[in-house]
User: What shape does this take?
Amino acid sequence: MGVVEYLYGPGVEETLDFVVRQVVQSPEKRVLMVLGSCQVRYQGRARSFLDWGERILIVKEDGTSIIHQPSGREPVNWQPHGARATYLLQDRLFTVHVVHRKNRERMAVSFKKIEMVFAARMDDRARVQIVGMERDIVDKIMENPELIEPGLRITQREKKTRSGLIDLFGYDRHHVPVVIEVKRSQATISAAQQLRMYVTDLKRGNDKARIRGILCTPRIPEMVCRLLDDYGLEYREFGWQHQLFDDQQTSLEDY
Amino acid sequence: MFQVTIKTDYLRNIVDATSILVDEIKLHFTPDQVYARAVDPAHVGMVDFKLKSEAFEEYDVKEDVDLAVDLDKLKSMLKLPSTEEVISLIYEEEGQLVVHMGNLTRHMSLLDTADMADTKIPSLELSTEIVVKTAEVYKGVKASEAVSDHIALSANPEGFELTAQGDTDTVSLHISKDQLVSLKCKEQVRSLFSLDYFSDMVKSVKSESLKIYLGNDYPVKMLFELAGDHGEVAYLLAPRIESE
Assistant: This one.
């Protein structure tokens, strides 16, 4: 962590002075956080007013500004990156104006009592990596169709039908067309129905046409299994390992 | 077009040494040697071997030929219950290698060399050179596998050390200068490696001693002899960055 400066229970003037010194005049970008009792006015796509309450305001180094109440995941008000914050005293209140010119939005947060304020230089160059997406599983099956069954060939990815896009389409070893629908989590009734629609679409009204449908998911509840059986469809429980990249391992290409 | 005959053991050594990193390899046959270079898909480990014509029982290569082989196929041949001491490789027809092992013949289809890029060897400056008994390093690797996924190699003018730090346990193997075959080291060096790769590499070393070139947070190079002194295998392994 770079610099961290903070004050406990500063007055409004002291807060403004602190923010000007530690954030506005700081040569490096810093993240500001204010905890206290505030009012929020917002004007943009709509207008809103939020009366006094104890909240946390975070102004990130890219201008992103967020106000959080004591509960809930979503901020009660926010401005995306590219916004600019200005700080001043208005009617004896420490006020932060956040203006997003491009979106024509403005947000004003006025604090009457401040419990804590901090400014920090934060160092974080890591990016979030996500595994276990539906696409990852589709990729795995594309790479090695034998994971589903021996002799299976995948010929098309995201094949169009009237009801939507089929994840994977191919032929089994007896050259029977196979439709594969992949879901990243537990199979649902609607996934089974979706697969049935795809298969029906491909049969083009000829119910005798032999087309197989396979639902691939990590887990399939009993109820969905029965429904698939009724529909004459198949299923594979297809597990995979979540593996994140090892960012500490260097490559010989670096030398 | 060529015909060569080699001791089964030597071929097995080569297949073992390369198949820890790749499934397919491009072999370059020249009139006086065979060589190959390959890097694993993650570009973390590299193998570079050469085998002089003297290592072969029979070596009849008139011009340069590149062959790309599926190592699994060779492996499956070598696994057969056979006591044949030699194996012959005959290349007469494009895209096909004929392998004779005693009274057994296999026509092996080859891979397309056009799809396989030549592997570039990074130029490394490694000042420290350690020659150590393979059995010692093997012992250190086996002990380390029980506690960690990583292994640190370090050296100073007094000796060479392997250390593995696990969550709860630590293993270290110190080999002092006089227990080493030789040591050229002016200053302390240390690099950390994935034990997965390192142990596979060490386990495929067939010679009695192993030459290790080491730097600071830098790739390691390991060199060992094959087929008496008629062949040589070099491994390169990229380091891990040590977390603080």
Remarks:
- The mean pLDDT of chain A is 88.
